[in-house]
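Support reply, case 0932

Customer input (verbatim):
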Amino acid sequence: MPELHLLTPPPWHDYSLLATGEGMKLERFGAYTLIRPETQAIWPSNLPASAWQQADARFAKPRGGDESPGTWLQHRPLPEQWQLHYDNLAFWVRPTPFRHTGVFPEHSAHWPWLRQQIATRPTPNCLVLFGYTGLSSLYALSCGARVTHVDASKPALRWAQDNQQLAGLTERPIRWLVDDVGKFVAREIRRGTHYDLILLDPPVFGRGPKGEIWRLHEQLPSLVAQCAQLLSDRPLGLLLNAYATNMSALTLYNVLVSALSGRSGATSAGELALVEAQTARLLPAALYACWSPSSHPHEL
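Our regenerated output:
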């Protein structure tokens, strides 16, 4: 019977979750503190209102729902972008009209495992699907992998390339592709291409560069099954993240086990969480499932 696990990121010098509660989260990104909506944080805040009021900027929810752009209410001027660092990686933070900053700190909970897998052989081939601003792609690149990064958004890919330049990784082997993930994977299967390591971070809903529709609940099983076909004869792993609040980590586990039936190895699943600085309270951030060809699951 599967066990669900809870993963938290290693401590960051440049990032901290300062407080949560009442539908909000207060975060420090380098020298600036931001307040963003957080639907999971339905509990009372442990910080007084005065502490929240000292934040540098607050994201105001759009009237048209999450698909509409919102506004950052600045209490002191924010730069258009500023640098953050993690380990040997450098990247840009940019407050966007859709509340995101280009950084998902919870992803770093996977990075020690990623480094460990890549270190087992010289220059393994790594495929990153729905790669967004490229932090996991660049971390894999910095660890010695050869990376193929696929995302449907041209602005996100340009942001990822800016991060590559900032991190000093422009001489490392990476392919940047603006493409519909489903179409790309199907082409790679026809070409007979294989990858040692595959990372997926799909949204609940998305559009490809030519208007292709992506719906997580409908298309995830077939996409993961196709990704299993892309794994090499000596694979290092397949890692899946998801942000669907109406989906269980067991769902991801079952999808991954079904796709990889017949392959030996270990599959684990659970939640990614951020640790609130003062209280150590955990904020749920994402779901994940991970398959590794070794007998040791991701957590060990």
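We compared this against your earlier run and they match. Two observations from our side: The longest strand covers residues 282-292. The two ends are 18 Å apart (CA to CA). Please reopen the case if you see a mismatch on your end.
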